[in-house]
Specification:
- The complex is a heterodimer of chains A (154) and B (164).
- Helices cover 25% and strands 36% of the residues of chain A.
- With 154 residues, chain A is of the alpha+beta class.
- Chain A has one domain: Umud Fragment, subunit A, CATH 2.10.109.
- Chain A is built from 3 helices and 10 strands; from the N terminus they run αββαβββββαβββ.
- The radius of gyration of chain A is 20 Å and the shape is elongated.
- In chain B, 15% of the residues lie in helices and 29% in strands.
- In chain B, strands 1, 2, 3, 4, 7, 8, 9 and 10 form an 8-stranded antiparallel sheet that branches. A two-stranded antiparallel sheet of chain B has the order 5-6.
- The N and C termini of chain B lie far apart (61 Å).
- Classes of the chains: A alpha+beta (154), B alpha+beta (164).
- At the A-B interface, helix 1 and strand 4 of A face helix 1 and strand 8 of B.
């Protein structure tokens, strides 16, 4: 009898673990999550090891605007994420490094640039980025505590 | 069953379902003729394929696999194509702006089987691996068409050089 009781308790426990894991997954995948950024490309807006709160609704609903800071998968390495500012939407005229002439952002793409334009590898290097690679939009900085600030308005 | 327990099971059931669809895979209907004859061989009935998310969890794809990806032109649209070449390969293109293309790092070259009736890399160029959504494993409906989707490439569409 006790064996069944223990078995039932264990099953119940694992059920709860799975339930909460699934809820966590959905929250992080569909609503928002926390991201730690590193690298100099977004200085002085963001510094290394800042923790950012991001939301996933705007990219899903295609409501991105010029000036939003977004987290996207790197076009050359899908396992790596990049954090840049949108400076051009489809149809905008932008200027890259290579080829060094102005070009129009094609449909379904955005132009991403880091704020630290002298030390940032961004769209000027690898061209427009497909919107499908954008994962989330940065809402505010939550760490370090003395620099908590909203990052949605440009 | 009280209203409270119903809303409770919805609250816990929906995330479990979504997580399952996100990590394991789901079934989707194939639209269009771009993958004929492998998918939708007749014009009347549509094939349903099982798309495995698990198979692409770390972006491991092979040449010849059938994959679904978000279209680079329209992020809301999902397209289903066959992988022709991976990073470092050189492909001979059909109607792209350059005759020969070396696939850049982190990209792949995708084409529909129905050459000439498909919107693929020959139009929009190499696609980033990050756009890959799932791998099509098998046709699950209608029952007469039940089969696994093999990784195969016609001899004429093999990449000219294959990176090691």
């Amino acid at each position: 009898m006790t064996i069944f009781k223990v078995l039932g308790k264990t099953c119940g426990f694992f059920g709860y673990v799975i339930q909460y894991a699934c809820i966590t997954h959905c929250t992080f995948e569909y609503i928002g999550d926390f991201v730690m950024c590193s690298g100099p490309s977004m200085e002085p807006t963001l510094e290394s090891n800042n923790i950012l709160l991001t939301e996933h609704l705007t990219p899903r609903l295609q409501r991105l605007r010029r000036g939003d800071i977004v987290i996207a998968k790197s076009p050359s390495n899908p396992k790596q994420n990049i954090c840049k500012r949108i400076t051009g939407l489809p149809g905008d005229k932008v200027k890259g490094h290579f080829p060094k002439r102005s070009q129009v952002v094609p449909r379904g793409h955005v132009w991403l640039e880091g704020d630290n334009s002298t030390n940032s590898s961004d769209s000027r290097l690898y061209g427009p980025v497909p919107q499908g690679l954008i994962r989330s939009r940065v809402v505010c900085r939550v760490w370090p505590l003395n620099k908590i600030s909203s990052l949605t308005e440009y | 069953m009280s209203l409270r327990s119903i809303s409770r099971s919805i609250l816990f059931g929906v995330p479990i379902g979504l997580t399952f669809l996100d990590t394991v895979g789901y079934v989707a209907r194939v639209e269009g003729i771009s993958m004929q004859p492998a998918l939708n061989p007749g014009s009347t009935n549509k094939d349903y394929v099982f798309l495995s998310r698990w198979a692409v969890r770390d972006y491991n794809i092979k040449r010849g696999d059938v994959i679904s990806l978000s279209s680079p032109k329209d992020p809301n649209q999902k397209i289903i194509k066959r992988v022709v070449a991976l990073q470092g390969d050189v492909v001979s293109t059909i109607g792209y702006k350059n005759q020969y293309v070396k696939i850049p790092e982190g990209h792949c070259w995708v084409e529909g089987d129905h050459t000439g009736h498909t919107l693929d890399s020959n139009t929009f160029g190499p696609v980033s691996l990050g756009l890959i959504n799932a791998k099509a494993v098998s046709i699950v409906w209608p029952p007469a068409r039940w089969q696994k989707l093999e990784a195969k490439l016609p001899e004429s569409r093999k990449p000219l050089s294959i990176a090691m």
